[in-house]
Design a protein that fits this description.
438 residues; alpha+beta; four-stranded antiparallel beta sheet; 16 helices; 14% strand; binds zinc ion
């Protein structure tokens, strides 16, 4: 087991793992030589041993509606916060949530041919509403963290409160970890609600499935939230049910066909489909279960509304920029970037990580009915792209060859063929320049 001690060597290990850009020591310098590093590390170690460590200053930025963003340029701060974070993550086995697996699980749960009610929950101002005192005392009770770690968390809470933070200070890595602990406890409590048989959570996005299709579980859910000092965001609350259409008021005149066993048929039409935007996808499913219990329900996986909007905005910005600069080369690159895939990083084992239309949405699978959720399909994005480009070329004509080259790029093909494009880091910066602020 790795020690929770704030030793110079432990902090040194963490400094090697994280980026060091722009963090300065108390004297305003950025240490370079091992000697200079040693000086900083031992000074922090000694301060912590003597109990005299004080947090250095934070930059506080207003994010609107009472939200503050905390950042720091202090090397001493970042070394200590990294070690606190590392201690908490190890002690509580906090792991990076997996978006892909979470969506797969929710889809499988929806495929099950059983009557169910589905809730999508959003925590209102999550970070800001976490009760710090209560969190700290539960951490103490758990006895998983060293006293020094607890004391440094306490000091961080006090200092950032003093600077105006409500709840967990947004922007600091440690807050993400601590919020995970709070969300985890909330999740455990939600599982205990009568009738709840499945809970999916990704950071603070929560989906609940219950076989209690009759009664509304919102009061129970709200109570669990309140217990943790949190509240439900009513505006983002979503509720659907998949059940016999006759279960609440039957319109059949003489003899309901569903009287003994539901005989409702799933219809693949926009009216009888239910939609759930979750982690970048839109899951679409019929309002009734299929007749055959052993056969999975049809579930379509589309692009979430927010993602569609983002792509459209980016296409639009790329076109606007082209009309301003008439830079065909750049327009081509931007559309290649949007409709294709590219390497984003190299993982520790040397294998490449990719992003782009296929890699970000590899679960995308539309249902056979072509008109269903059309706005959330790749084909709809293709249509939007084509229209925007043709309009641009009308205003600012380019050679036939260029027209053909750019128009051959589609989201559907980038997805289907997993097309990868190689861009240099500086190219990516220039490509992104026109939608950076988005
Ligand atoms: Zn009926
Ligand atoms: Zn029925």
């Amino acid at each position: 087991m790795i020690s929770q001690e704030f030793s110079a060597s432990a902090m040194n290990r963490l400094r090697r793992r994280g980026a060091q850009f722009d963090y300065r020591a108390d004297d305003g310098t950025i240490p370079i030589s091992e000697d200079q590093w040693r000086k900083v590390l031992y000074k922090v170690q000694d301060e912590i041993i003597q109990g005299s460590y004080r947090y250095r200053s934070f930059n506080v930025k207003k994010l609107g509606d009472k939200k503050l963003l905390f950042t720091t340029k202090s090397l001493e701060n970042i070394l200590v916060i990294r070690k606190i974070n590392d201690n908490v993550r190890r002690a509580y086995r906090v792991r990076q949530a997996n978006r892909h697996d979470t969506v797969v699980q929710v889809k499988q749960a929806l495929e099950e041919s059983v009557p169910k009610r589905i809730y999508k929950l959003d925590i209102k101002s999550f970070y800001e509403s976490v009760p710090k005192r209560k969190l700290l005392s539960s951490l103490k009770k758990d006895r998983l963290l060293s006293n020094v770690t607890l004391d440094l968390i306490d000091k961080l809470f006090k200092y950032t409160s003093h600077l105006g933070a409500r709840g967990l200070p947004r922007g600091l890595q440690i807050s993400a970890t601590l919020s995970e602990l709070v969300a985890r406890r909330l999740e455990q409590d939600l599982r205990e609600i009568d009738g709840v048989y499945y809970v999916a959570r990704y950071v603070d996005d929560i989906i609940i499935l219950t076989n209690n299709v009759k009664s509304d579980l919102i009061p129970d859910i709200s109570r669990k939230f309140a217990f943790h000092g949190l509240s439900l965001n009513d505006k983002k609350l979503l509720e659907h049910s998949v059940k016999c259409r006759c279960s609440e008021g039957c319109s059949h005149k003489n003899g309901c066909p569903c009287a003994r066993k539901c005989s409702c048929k799933p219809i693949l039409s926009n009216n009888s489909m239910r939609e759930l935007d979750f982690l970048g996808y839109k899951l679409a499913f019929p309002d009734v279960n299929g007749p055959n219990q052993s056969k999975p329900n049809d579930i379509g996986v589309y692009l979430a509304d927010k993602k569609v909007d983002k792509y459209k905005r980016r296409v639009w910005r790329a076109v606007e920029d082209f009309l301003r600069t008439q830079d065909q080369e750049m327009l081509l690159k931007r559309i290649m970037y949007l409709t294709g895939n590219h390497k984003i990083a190299e993982s520790d084992d040397g294998s490449a990580l990719y992003g782009g239309i296929y890699y970000n949405f590899n679960l995308y699978a539309s249902l056979a009915e072509p008109g269903l959720c059309f706005d959330n399909k790749l084909a709809s994005l293709d249509r939007f792209l084509e229209k925007a480009l043709l309009r641009a070329f009308k205003i600012c004509p380019v050679t036939r060859l260029t027209v053909r080259e750019i128009l051959s790029l589609t989201f559907s093909n980038g997805f289907k063929w997993r097309r990868r494009r190689a861009f240099t880091p500086s190219e990516i910066v220039r490509i992104g320049a026109c939608w950076n602020e988005l």
